[in-house]
Sequence to fold (370 residues):
Amino acid sequence: MSTRKLLLLPGDGIGPESMGEVRKIIAWMNEVKNTGFELDEGLVGGAAYDAHGAAISDADMEKAMAADAVLFGAVGGPKWDDVPYDVRPEAGLLRLRKDMKLFANLRPAICYSALAASSSLKPELVENLDILIVRELTGGVYFGEPKTITDLGNGQKRAIDTQVYDTYEIERICGVAFELARTRGNRVCSMEKRNVMKSGVLWNEVVTQTHKAKYDDVELSHMLADAGGMQLVRAPKQFDVIVTDNLFGDMLSDIAAMLTGSIGMLPSASLGAPDAKTGARKAMYEPVHGSAPDIAGQGIANPIAMIASFAMCLRYSFNMIEDADLVEKAISNVLDAGFRTGDIMADGCTQVGTTQMGDAVLAEFQKLSA
Ligand code: IPM
Ligand code: MG
Fold:
């Protein structure tokens, strides 16, 4: 039995309750499938701030660096609205992404047919939607320097964020997008704002060159990011893989999330480069939804995004493709059977809480595994 080291960082809000449902699945897999997951746990976000005065402690950062994969819940909440900017809950998430060099963020937006009616778009526009947003995650305006607010001394202040991309950053993220496209619809759409941003000009140029040099079997198109947002709500099924920068990826993935019926459904994977010797890559898996403080602690949160993030972990970190498929199939079957948390509730369905939803997915996974 091989050891698979997982670090759980449940975080704040609905993070811990969603993570609890994944914990059950892992415990069962260890017991019955002999999967040898070794769990450790740490604090991130407001929880870490309360305990250590930092959004993640150095000790927990070390654990994250040593783990085969990190499962991340959510961070933030009104309780920490007034903490200093550099220790705000989100800083823990950003440090994990940056220090672990998780440059590739995979955000699939899949609309289960059972949920097509929950989308704000017409069901026929989203039914069976399956797109993948590949978001650059360690560069761009999130991390570019200078990043300052300066007092100009005349009653005015000046705020600066810097959008910066080097060739290698664009090359490696579009490489990930092209590789993934080959495993699915074989189409990539690259989004930037080359009409106003120099970083957009370079982005477009490097994606075009990389495509020509190494991936010309994949169909490539380019779209301005604002038009891309519009096309996502006009005719989302035209897309297969979308590759874009950190900030546009943040916004476009929230838009894509809502197409699927609820942001409570969407998982994500953040991956580093494969190690030259072992091929292993650092990785963190997190739901796209946030900490949802308004419903935290009530046992009503939708744990599906967290469970689906674990499925991505099985797929990308441990190459346990069959189990990943079964977990995803279990989610889909449970939805087909009419189980719904409040966020995706519909007429004629059975409304359940976090625990019941987790139990239903686990029971289905057990059945499918038999
Ligand atoms: C996301 C979130 C984060 C981001 C926040 C919490 C810092 O919105 O993962 O999409 O902006 O990247
Ligand atoms: Mg976001």
In short: The two ends are 20 Å apart (CA to CA). The longest helix spans residues 15-32.
